[in-house]
Structures are given as structure tokens and as C-alpha cells.
Amino acid sequence: MSLALNGKPALIVSECQRGVIEPAMAGFAGLAAEAEARDIVPRIADLARAFRAAGAPVVHAPIAHRPDFADVPPTSLIAALARKHRRMTEGSAEVDFVAALVPEAQDLVVWRSSGMVAFNGTALDAILRRLGVATVVLSGVSTNLAIAGCALTAADLGYQVVIAEDCIAGSDPRSHAVIVEAQLRMIARIATAADVIAALAAA
Predict the structure, then answer these.
(1) C-alpha to C-alpha distance for 89 and 73, rounded to whole angstroms
(2) Per-residue pLDDT tens for 16-59?
(3) In whole angstroms, what is the distance from residue 26 CA to residue 93 CA?
(4) Domain coordinates of the chain in residue numbers?
(5) Which one, of 8, 5, 4, lies nearest residue 134 by Cα?
(6) Which region, left, alpha or beta, applies to residue 39 given φ > 0 means left and ψ of -120 to 50 means alpha?
(7) What's the CATH number of domain 8-202, 1.20.1440.230, 3.40.50.300, 3.40.1280.10, 3.40.50.850?
């Protein structure tokens, strides 16, 4: 497949943290199992290396809740469970990046303390615009929530959205396939890590 990246691209790595996708620590076993089965971490690491080599931004979008959960209202199942079990709090091992995706010195890290979309309540959009980014390439988890939310928000904000489909995972194979086919392809270009790396080289 031939993929063209319009304008300056940036890679966004969503929630690749120990408490999210490391099987022994993850709060949702199905999501961690899917991330492992789909082998997304090595491919995201390859993408990140390619972006750095091309001089394009790599942006990590992790979550870490305040210890008092003051800004996490229980308005969703995810938020309610996080509050109940006191998960993913600042300073805990759960919020650490998985070993293969620890940010490098030139990477950007945009933390958020609540919500499910990296653009909401953060400086992500402003940072990307200051860097002159026109295309965002999404990777990480989860297909069901953060990736879908980021894709919709980024498209509404005027970015070209590319989803590296073999670099994302959802709660189960069926929901992942349905969301990619029925929703994400309507707002984003669906590609592979290899497609994106080839497009970076061509640019």
C-alpha cells in the first residue's frame, strides 16, 4: 500500500504503560493480552526509531491520576474502576512506561491526569501546532477508547490522521476489527508500521 504523509508528521504513542499493557500489572487483562498477542510494542519501537531518524516528533501520551483522584469524576466505567482500586496514580509503578518504549531525550511527553483522550485537558494540540505538525500517526492503546477518541478529535482539529493498525490493540479481536472497519477507516488512513516507515523514507 502506498501511503503519503501530508506535511510534517508526528507519532503519538498512547498509554504504553506498565499498568495498562504489561500482563503482570495491567488492570484489564484482555487488553494486555491483546497488546502482547498483536506484538504491538516492538513495532511501535521501530516506528519511534524511524520518526527520530527522520527528525519527526515522537510524542508519548500517558496517564497518571492524582493520588486523591480529585479531577477524576466517576462518569465512566474506566474512571469508576480507577477510583475504586486506586490505580494508575502519580509515582506508582503502574504509570511507568514499558521498558521498550521509555521516552528518549528528544521525545515529548504529554501527561494527563484524567479523561480518555490525549488531546482533552492537555497542551497536546498547542505543542503539535508549534512544531508545525500536520499529520498524526496514532499507536498504542486502546482501539476501543483512547485511539478512537484521539482519531476523532485530531480529525476535528484539522490534522490528517493515520492509524498504524498493527501498532494498536483493543480489549478483544472482534471489537478491534469492528472499530477499525466501521469507525476508524471513516476518519483516518489505516496503514501498517511498514507503510508509515516507507512513507517517512519517501518524504
Answers:
(1) 15
(2) 999 999 999 999 999 999 999 999 999 999 999 999 999 999 99
(3) 11
(4) 8-202
(5) 8
(6) left
(7) 3.40.50.850
- β partners of residue 89: 65
pTM of the shown model: 0.97
List, edge to edge, every strand of the sheet that includes 133-141: 108-109, 58-61, 8-14, 133-141, 160-169, 189-191
Distance separating alpha carbons of residues 13 and 82, to the nearest angstrom:
21
CA distance 58 to 49: 9
Quickly tell me which residue has 516528533 as its cell: 57
Position 151, amino acid:
A
Strand partners for 8 = 133
Do residues 63 and 18 lie in contact, with contact meaning Cβ atoms separated by under 8 Å?
no
Half-sphere exposure of 85 (CA within 13 A, CB side): 13
Residue with cell 518524504: 203
Q: Give the separation between CA 53 and CA 38, rounded to whole angstroms.
A: 25
